[in-house]
Amino acid sequence: MSKLKILKRRFKYLLIKLLRLKDHSHKVALGFSLGSIVNFVPTFGFGLILSVGLAKLCRGNSMAGLIGGMLLMWAFPLMFYLNTVVGEYLVPIDLDHALLEVADDDLTDHLETGAHIGKIFLAGMLVNMVLFGGLLYAGVYYMINQYRAELLYYVYKKWVV
Length: 161
Known about the structure:
Blueprint: H1 3-19, H2 25-37, H3 47-57, H4 62-71, H5 76-90, H6 95-101, H7 107-160
Transmembrane segments: 28-50, 62-82, 120-144
Pfam families: DUF2062 (PF09835)
Keywords: Membrane, Transmembrane, Transmembrane helix
């Protein structure tokens, strides 16, 4: 079986698992969105644990948090890049100029530049987490609340068979 078919099967399985959760739409959407936004943070391999923990802490569905963390785990490099792009927009700096200034061996310049790059990343991360989490929550809540049965029927009839 090819890698693409394996990934497609895993995606279908996770989607069916998410749609079959026996919980309120609010809890499922909250858990899924909180589990997904953890991927904006550099977690160093603990992302899935943090997804479940954050979903439980905020009284969302922990299984939905796990599914949300797993479904968007592949996109973390894109999310990190988006953090820096949004952060540079919010905290403007000429990064090329700053890195060239650090070429002389002054340690304080290195630390200042590193701290500023960290501020850029953190600002972008926080904004992305709030915006992406809110939009994802609203979309998942609406889809589950309105179309759960239709989506399950479609997934079973079209994808599983």
